[in-house]
Amino acid sequence: MAIKFTRESSLSLPMANTDPDDWNASLENNFALRSGILLLAEVGVVSFVAVTILLAITTRHAIKHYRLYGGWGPEDSSLQPVSLLFFIAMFMDSIQAMGSILTARWAFDGKVTEGSYCTSQAVLKQFGNDGASWFTIAVAVMTFVQTVFPGVLSRSRARQLAAAMIILIFLFLFLMIVIPSTTIPHYYGNTGAWCWITDTSVEASRLKIGSEYAYFWLAATVTFVLYGTIVVKWLRQATAERDRRLLRDAISMGWYPIAYTAEIFPISLVRFLQWRPAGHRPQHGWVILAAILFASSGAVNVLLWLLTGRRFGFSDPQEESDEEEEDHKRVSYMTGMLSPGSAGVHSPAIGSLYSPAVTGSRRRTLSGRASLRTR
């Protein structure tokens, strides 16, 4: 439907649906709507830059550890399998941000045109969104197991589990992109304000939920259950021991599932309203606002990394040394009192493993910071 560009039209946006023609008419004639699309791309730039800087910092720390310990995973290194899972999760946030950045072209053109650029955006969005969800689950699972059941996984078994997770997730993402796009005609294309999975077939419409939004809420559920269990146990221990540091760590841990749910809830809600067969549907402006909040997930994750003090093993050696004395004073509250001579004692505060068998001048707590977020 054509829209005459007036002062009123810039303030009162038309009702949204999933018809690309409706969106294209709105984009072409509505400066406010095009500005919103451009803002989405700008938020994507902020997230991409923030995540890229964090990836550079963590890579630098990993190189320092390699030089210090003579390898990537010796027993006295703080780098743990969860460190790699966290790194890949943040990489997925950068891919997700790239998909948002490509929206800038549609803001300047005033319409979405299909082609290789459009398909690239759709693939980046699905790969980044799904990848962030699955690696969020992977980090939560690894965190939970190593923190609540420290005796279940040895360091070598933890590496094997992390490797299996990485291989399976990447294989799953590859298949979820390749199979539908090669078997369903016009699977990726113009969806209104950007490119994603189209509504050209019943299968494609179902896969909008089955291949993306279902994973969002699966990740949210898993993180709430697993991190929530850890938080409750830490709060009990902090209250019993009057441990302020552990209380702070418990509160910090709780922010991860809260932040993730806050990122996915608005976009999930507007999509649900859009995909209903009938009834009130959100205006285009609300759809873009929800997309902007979702596109900020990379920047939010970086803020959590900075503010909660959780480094997932990417800490400076001096920072680890300063924490060691406090870390190995505690014994695991979750698994019962472990004897001082046991093979390893997990610090519930940061999920670290202190092994009395590690000797030498560089013996330290393995501060893998098994608490995680992720996106």
TrEMBL record:
Gene3D superfamilies: Rhodopsin 7-helix transmembrane proteins. Keywords: Membrane, Transmembrane, Transmembrane helix. One of its GO terms (biological process) is adenylate cyclase-activating G protein-coupled receptor signaling pathway. It is found in: Membrane. It is a multi-pass membrane protein. One of its GO terms (molecular function) is G protein-coupled receptor activity. GO terms for cellular component: plasma membrane. This is Glucose receptor Git3 N-terminal domain-containing protein. The chain crosses the membrane at residues 37-57, 84-108, 131-149, 161-179, 214-235, 255-274, 286-307. The keyword Ribonucleoprotein does not apply.
